[in-house]
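Quality-control log, excerpt.
Job 1 of 2 completed; input and output follow.
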Amino acid sequence: MMKYVLAEIFKYRKAKIKFCTIVLFIPTVISFIIYGFNKKYNSLLLWEGYLNVIFSFLNDIVAPIVYGIIAAYIFGHEYETKTMNVMFTYPINRMKLLFSKLACILYIIAITLILVFFTSIILGFLLKHESLNMDLLIYYFIALLKMILYHFMLVCITCAVAIYSKNVLPGIIFVISATFANIVIVNTQLSAFYPWSAPVLLSPHEGVGRIFIPYTLSTISLVVIFLIGLAISIKKYRYVE
């Protein structure tokens, strides 16, 4: 199984789609500029407010779109280039191939979000800031680990769309539409039932305008969309010609 995962990671590193992850650093850069040069905020950087803005921006728009595009590419590109048709003529375990691609996506999400987090901390130290205690750092790092899981669970339905359509574009259109719909829904009571609102609602976001925090329903919606995406992916991958 590990050789399949390593092969997928190697293919990803060779693909230009990897440059898409640069967009994930935009919330950090914007927050750094705001806290560094805006007179309203630059008197003293408060870590909670600073990190909450970055996490909210990531969870609201940036991360779902970036990881959705990457997932759609990883699954859809091989259909478009007919590589998958050739691969399926060999005695390859399709389930191992499917889960190796999912593991690759999880690896990408984990590495990039951790890099964004530590980049945010480093840039914060360059500004006039309050002291950062270990408890606060651990709290936000644990929140980050949860974010990794949330975005992986969300991305599975995009994988299913790419597998079902055998194309990159439908998956990209799907995830962009779902993410922008979240901008409208996230501040309403419907957010409890909308999976793309879950990463925002289940992560630290105090002081950035979120009103409804239905933790249980958000978790359930996220689990349901993950299971649906995974089930469709397994079914289509197992029997696709």
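Job 2 of 2 completed; input and output follow.
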Amino acid sequence: MRTRRIELDGSAGHVAIERQPGSTTIRIDSIIRDPKPGEQAWKTWEIEARDTDDTELFWIATEVQRRCDGVVGTNSMVHDYYREMQRFAD
């Protein structure tokens, strides 16, 4: 069994993480509901599942957590998002 797509919704924003069958690319779409001045409301990442190491995936999870929750999270908060993102890595 494989997870193809997951959507995460927080108090500040929404993220969809997707990997199509047979694809080596993970796509992450994020939107912040009420962006602050100068803050990017919509952001999309495309990363290679096979070439992304744990450190890079954790860094991306940190940004995903901040965009969903609206605050810089603790390590345990970021790890919740990191674990979800690991479903898509090889």
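Post-run check on job 2. Residues 4 and 20 are 6 Å apart (CA to CA).
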